[in-house]
Amino acid sequence: MAEISLTALREPGALTRAWRISGFSSRRLAFYEDFLDSGVELRLYCRFRAEKLEGRGAPDYAIVREIGDRLAQGRSVAAALHGLVPPSDLVLIAAHESRGTLHQGIAQVIDTVREEIQLRSEARSQLTTPLLYMLLAIGLVTYGLPWMVELMSKNLLKPGMMSLDQRALVAFTGFMAHHALLFNLLYTVVPALYLVSLPRWTVASRVPGRGWLDRHFAPYAIYRAYHAALFMRSLGAQLAVTPKLEHALEAIRANSNRWLADYIWAMEQRLPSCRVRPILALDVGLLDAAMVDSLMLVSLRGESEQAIASRAQTACKRASATIRSYVAAIRVAAYLLLGTVLAWAVLSLMTQTIKQQTEALSNPAAMQHVR
User: Fold this and answer.
1) 95 lies in some domain
2) Buried b (16+ CB within 10 A) or exposed e, 281-310
3) Phi and psi of 19, rounded to 5°?
4) How many C-beta atoms surround the C-beta of residue 252 within 10 A?
5) Phi and psi, residue 198, nearest 5°
6) Domains of the chain: total
7) Are 284 and 259 in contact (CB under 8 A)?
8) Are residues 225 and 183 in the same domain?
9) Residues 358, 158 contacting (CB under 8 angstroms)
10) Are residues 44 and 184 in the same domain?
11) Contact (Cβ atoms closer than 8 angstroms) between residue 319 and residue 232
12) Long-range pairs for 166-170 at CB < 8 Å and ≥24 separation?
C-alpha cells in the first residue's frame, strides 16, 4: 500500500501541469478507454500517445509522458499513476494489478468514471432549472413588484378611497417593495451566486466542511452530499476487488482531505487569475471524515464486507435524498416568488379596474364620454 499513499499532488509534472480542471473526468476517461483499445502495454501506449498529443498541442501530453517515464523506471502502474488520478481509481487499479487483472481493473475504473460524469451531469441539470426559475422570479420581484405597488399607491391612497389603517398597510407594503432589491440581494441573489461559484476566501479554508458556513449553508450542503454520493458509489466497486477492506479504507481515510487540499492548491496554481470558480467543476472525491471513521469502525468490529457495502449504499441513498430535498426547497422558493409576483399583478389589475369603475360612476360626464 506504500506505493499508493496518495499524499500529495505536488510532484514534478503532476496534475498541476495537465488534465486541467475543465473536462478532467472526460480526459481521464479517454486515457483509460484508448489504452484498452490499443491492445499494447501501458508504457508503450503512453509513449506513442504523448507524442501524438504533443503534436496536436494538447495539454495532456505532459501527464501521459510522466506516466510513461515512471513506468520506464520500473514502477508499478499504481505507482506511475500516483498523484495523477483520484484515490478511488488507484485503489481499484492497485487491487487488480496485484491479481494480474490490470485490464479488468481499468475497465471497472472506466465504468466508475462514466457513472461519475453521469451523476455530475444529473446534479448540474437538477440544479440549473430551479436556479433559472429563481433568478427569473428575483428579477420580477425586484423590478416588477415596486412598480405594481407604486401604481396601487397612486390609485388607492387618494382621499376617501381607503380607511387610515388600509392606507397605512398599503404604504408599508410599498416601502417593503421599494426595498425589495436589498432583501433579494441578502436572501436570494447572494446564495444563488454562491451556489454556482466558489469564492477565493472559501478556497483558503483548504478543507471544506469544517466551518460554520459549510455546516449551515444549504447550497454548499448540496455540493457535499453530491460528492459523498460519488464516493459511496465508488466504494461499492472497491469492495468487490480489494483483498483487504481495511487497507482500502485506510488509504482513503488517510488521504482524502489531504488530496482535496492539494487538488485545490493545484487549481490555484493553474488558474491564479481567476477569482470565481464553478463548484460543480471540482472533480474530487469529497467526503466527510466522520463518514469514513464510521466505516473504519465497522471494519474493525469484524463485520462482513456485505454489511459495509450495505451501509455505504444507505449513505449514498441519504446523500441523494439530501440533494433532492435541497433541490425541492429551491423549487418551492422559486414557485413562491413567482406566485407572489402573479398575485400582485392580479391585485394591481383588479385595483385598476375598480378605480376606473368608481370614477365612471362618480362622474356622469365621463360615463357619457365613454359611451
Assistant:
1) no
2) bbbbbbbbeebbeebbebbeeeeeeeebbe
3) 45, 60
4) 24
5) -125, 100
6) 2
7) yes
8) yes
9) no
10) no
11) yes
12) none
Of 318, 312, 277, 320, the C-alpha closest to 88 is: 312
- Which residue, 198, 299, 207, is CA-closest to 262? 207
What secondary structure does DSSP assign to 138-206, as a single string?
Answer: HHIIIIIHHHHHHHHHHHHSSTTTS-HHHHHHHHHHHHHHHTHHHHHIIIIIHHHHHHT-EEHHHHTTS
Which residue type is seen at 223? Answer: Y
Q: Residue 122: which of 20, 217, 207, 233 has the closest Cα?
A: 233
In 9-83 the beta strands, taken as DSSP E runs, fall at none
Query: 62-95 burial by CB neighbour count: b if 16+ within 10 A, else e?
Result: bbbbbbbbbbeeeebbbbbbbbbbbbbbbbbbbb
Is 106 a domain residue? no
Q: Which residue has the cell 503512453?
A: 46
Same domain, 209 and 321: yes
The 10s digit of each residue's pLDDT in 160-210 is 555 555 555 555 555 555 555 555 555 545 544 544 443 333 333 333 333
Bridge partners for 276 per DSSP: 199
Task: For residue 92, tell me if it sits in a domain.
Answer: no
Q: What element of type H or E holds 277?
A: strand 276-277
Q: How many CA atoms lie within 13 A of 177 on its CB side?
A: 23
Domain range for 314: 115-371
Three cell numbers at 21? 480542471
Residues 69 and 154 grouped into a single domain: no
**pLDDT tens-digit series, residues 301-344:** 455 556 655 665 565 566 556 556 666 666 677 677 777 777 77
Residue 40's identity, in one-letter code, is: V
Q: Are residues 9 and 138 in the same domain?
A: no
pLDDT band at 127 (very low <50, low <70, confident <90, very high): low
Q: Is residue 334 part of a domain?
A: yes
What would the pLDDT profile of 29-79 be if each residue is shown by its tens digit?
878 888 888 777 888 888 877 777 777 766 666 777 878 888 888 888 888
SS3 207: coil
| Other CB atoms within 10 A of residue 243 CB | 9
Grid cell listed for 65: 509522458
Distance CA 67, CA 311 (A): 36
Looking at the structure, do residues 352 and 271 belong to the same domain, yes or no? yes
